[in-house]
Specification:
The chain is α+β, with helices and mostly antiparallel strands and 326 residues long. It has 7 helices and 18 strands. The protein has 3 domains: 83 residues, Uridine Diphospho-n-acetylenolpyruvylglucosamine Reductase, domain 2, CATH 3.30.43.10; 142 residues, Uridine Diphospho-n-acetylenolpyruvylglucosamine Reductase, domain 3; 65 residues, Uridine Diphospho-n-acetylenolpyruvylglucosamine Reductase, domain 1. The strands form 6 sheets. Strands 8, 9, 12, 13 and 14 form a 5-stranded antiparallel sheet that branches. The chain has a 4-stranded mixed sheet with strand order 1-2-5-3, with helices on one face. A 3-stranded antiparallel sheet has the order 15-16-17. Bound molecules: flavin-adenine dinucleotide (FAD). Flavin-adenine dinucleotide (FAD) binds next to strand 3, helix 4, strand 10 and strand 14.
Length: 326
């Protein structure tokens, strides 16, 4: 039996949707990548557990992703099952964020656990909630602390895996605890200290764990100030980042004591291209897809950048984008 037949005969998911030979160009901000053999939009924890039981029993590879904002999928695609985590915990429906659908409870923001002086609000969000959705909901409820993160494309699950950050703040500064599932389907809650957050890294690069939800801490703020800050950061992104072309954010990590984009710029590489992949003329830290770029183009280009930076500055630089596929 091939994988498609195995999945069709064995997986009986509640609400999650299954796709076969799904083009990953549709699910990555880079708009690059071959097909996923099986692609599942995972909407709830029970379905994820069932998928893990199935992949373990049948020895099938499982790849986890969020919004696909920091990944490069190889041209040969991804064998096995790709689980796109869309587990949400806020209700982003008509009463947008008024009710925290806390597994059946009708808890509201006002009823969220607070600290002793009543200023810290603990909000639990699903791994599949997008940063911008959360930011808009927090704005409505005049809660501050998330403005810096609000413009980072992606989900909370991806932000935790990458310890995403901008404007001097990282997701680790907001996390109280994270609920994860291991690849045997066991669920546990991990405190901030246990997550081993580092610059663009967390325990999730070392241990096979899937983020299900996270409790974040915010403060009561002023609506206008929150809105102004969000706008300011949004404008900064429009001005500095090549948002007009598909990309996956900063291609390389910041170096130890140097800014990688600056070194790439000083190598005179802005605008250099291989196939459809180009070093942005606007920001040397971004590789952009100028049209029809393949993963091979991006890899050839990033290898070239690494070589040139080493030649000129004797510095090794490390990819930030995560490579998925075989
Ligand atoms: C235009 C642009 C600007 C960006 N600016 C910034 C920035 O300012 N700061 C910054 O830090 N990043 C930035 N990024 C990168 C990206 O937005 C972040 O890394 C983001 O947190 C990725 O989230 P995602 O849901 O898209 O994760 P994905 O890209 O889907 O996945 C990233 C990694 O996380 C893993 N993962 C995803 N979800 C889960 C989960 N639920 N459980 C376990 N592992 C999971 C994946 O396996 C993969 O290894 C930018 C990207 C773009 C396109």
């Amino acid at each position: 039996m091939n994988l498609k037949e195995l999945v069709q005969n064995n997986l009986k998911l509640n609400t999650s949707k299954i796709y076969f030979d799904e083009q990953m160009t549709k699910h990555t901000t880079f708009k690059i990548g071959g097909p996923a053999e099986v692609f599942i939009k995972v909407e709830n924890i029970e379905d994820l557990k069932q998928i893990l039981d199935f992949t373990n029993k049948n020895n099938i590879k499982l790849t986890v992703m969020g919004n696909g904002s920091n990944v490069l999928v190889l041209d040969s695609g991804i064998k096995g099952i790709v689980a796109k985590i869309e587990i949400k915990k806020f209700d982003f429906g008509d009463d947008f964020g008024d009710t925290l659908k806390n597994q059946g409870s009708n808890q509201t923001f006002e009823e969220c656990p607070k600290n002793q002086d009543g200023n810290n609000f603990e909000i639990t969000v699903g791994a599949g909630n997008k940063n911008i959705e959360i930011a808009q909901s927090l704005l409505k409820h005049e809660l501050t602390g998330f403005e810096e993160i609000s413009g980072i494309p992606g989900t909370i699950g991806g932000a935790i895996r990458m310890n995403a950050g901008a404007h001097g703040k990282e997701i680790k500064d907001l996390v109280k605890n994270v609920t994860v599932m291991d690849y045997n389907g066991n669920i546990k809650q991990m405190q901030n200290e246990e997550m081993q957050f580092e610059y663009r890294n967390s325990i999730l690069s070392k241990e096979k764990l899937i983020v299900l939800e996270a409790t974040l801490v915010f403060q009561k703020g002023n609506k206008e100030e929150i809105q102004n800050k969000m706008k300011e950061y949004q404008n900064w992104r429009k001005e500095k980042q090549p948002l007009e072309f598909p990309n996956a954010g900063s291609t390389f990590k910041r170096g130890n004591g140097f800014i990688t984009a600056q070194l790439i710029d000083e190598c005179g590489l802005k605008g250099y291209n291989i196939g459809g992949a180009e070093i942005s003329t606007k920001h040397a830290g971004f590789v952009v897809n100028k049209g029809g770029a393949t993963a091979s183009d991006v890899i050839a280009l990033t290898d070239y950048i690494k070589k040139e930076v080493y030649k000129k500055f004797q510095k090794h630089i490390e990819l930030e984008i995560q490579i998925l596929g075989n």
